[in-house]
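Structural prep section.
Before we set up the soaks we want a predicted structure of the protein with NAI in place, mainly to decide which crystallisation condition to try first. Input record follows.
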Amino acid sequence: MSTKQFDVVVIGGGPGGYIAAIRAAQLGMNVACIDEWKNDKGGPALGGTCTNVGCIPSKALLQSSEHYEHLNHHFADHGITADNVKIDVAKMLARKDQVVKQNNDGIVYLFKKNKVTFFHGRGSFVAAKDGGYELKAGEETIQAKQVVVATGSNARALPGVPFDEENILSNDGALRVGATPKKLGLIGAGVIGLEMGSVWRRLGAEVTVLEGLPAFLGAVDESVAKEAAKVFKKQGLDIQLGVKVGEVKTSKKGVSVAYADAKGEAKTLDVDKLIVSIGRVPNTIGLGADAVGLKLDERGAIVVDDECKTNLPGVWAIGDVVRGPMLAHKAEEEGVAVAERMAGQHGHVNFNTIPWVIYTSPEIAWVGKTEQQLKAEGVAYKAGQFPFLANGRARALGDTTGFVKFLADAKTDEILGVHIIGPFASELISEAVVAMEFKASAEDIARICHAHPSLSEATKEAALAVDKRTLNF
Ligand code: FAD
Ligand code: NAI
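Run finished without errors. Recording the tokens verbatim:
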């Protein structure tokens, strides 16, 4: 049988890889995608970390647990009460699995629609050959003119403390806990720590988060981080900063974590389950990088230039396996840009306008620079802030926590950053991204008609606040 030939082979079917494959096919290339993720029956499960054990299942659990919290604590304000409210964790997990499956199936459909050939199995480089590359796709050998590596990342373990997914959980196990633990520990108060901590706290777990750094949410605008710390504390999340984690022991009873607190005092945290969420490492396991001399950096990430070109001709790399934020939408944008570059077009990713969202309640979302970054860079700026407390729609929703904050250039009024903590911040941030992409000024937003009553009016008012002329506060 002759070797199958492709214009482009994408290794990895996460948000970076599957989107790159679809865009390349749209542009007329003959494309294959190789992905090794297995569902619980051993079949394919396209979508990578994001779909299987990341963005999608975590948001499903955040939604279920938020409904439960509302029914228990907030609906009474609306005159709605219910006796005997229960949570069926098994059913909640089954729903989450169904949401994941819908997304897996959606990508299979998209591959068929766009005529992308899919191989289920491991993809690896065999050799450079005939101006392209010979690759293994599971058991098959195939040939590609160009290759896009989108192999993603894996959870980082504490040194000497491997994940067993029973007691010591990565993001994978954290999304499959079969019953609400009485006591839950998390190492790392980053994005996963806060999102997964919120899920299990809402369902009744006593949650303690141990964070190594002395500052809470160091990458977030300070005023937002301060507000978030206040709200999470009130909700009952015990977040301890500046700790040094020591020995971690597991037993039949659970997990015991020895640590020194911020004052250096020796302490022990005993919990039923421990989630370790201390960041992720780029994944090139089994890729055969050595076979072709693909260059990796000291963290194991594939070295790329601004255009996602690696050191090898015709080999590109995108998403979590390269530098930059580990976000699904960043991986997707790189996938589109690389496909367009392979087609001779000028694909572009604007790293200054990549939004971040933390899906806690309240949600936290931002784009562009923080106030502390602008200060450090010596940029003269003006700030404007508007609280949801003064927004009619937020009052009607019954959720007035937080604010919208604008940072604009002192001279030109160009928007440099927008920071939101509050209801639906994940949706509101899009307006700020669009504005920054079009290099809008704060006044541009302030002069645009926003629907009433809507949360987006808080965005308009924060833009007005830059010029100290809010109308409703
Ligand atoms: P991945 O999604 O990791 O996909 C890589 C794929 O390649 C996988 O299917 C893997 O099996 C496959 N693969 C690897 N090596 C090979 C090989 N040699 N051969 C064949 N296949 C291979 N980001 C957001 O933007 N928003 C969120 O809300 C969000 N929530 C998250 C929640 C959690 C709990 C976690 C862990 C992450 C979350 N992320 C979120 C981050 C997001 O999941 C990643 O940034 C994103 O998945 C990266 O996409 P990727 O395509 O680079 O890699
Ligand atoms: P993270 O980088 O967000 O947070 C890790 C935290 O662990 C940091 O605060 C760090 O200081 C702390 N830490 C590191 N080592 C430690 C140690 N030994 N002891 C105590 N604390 C320690 O990483 P996280 O939460 O694991 O998530 C990984 C990535 O996945 C995120 O950076 C993000 O890119 C992505 N993600 C995105 C989401 C979203 O967009 N909503 C949701 C979840 C994950």
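Observations: The first strand starts at residue 4 and ends at 11.
Flagged for discussion at group meeting.
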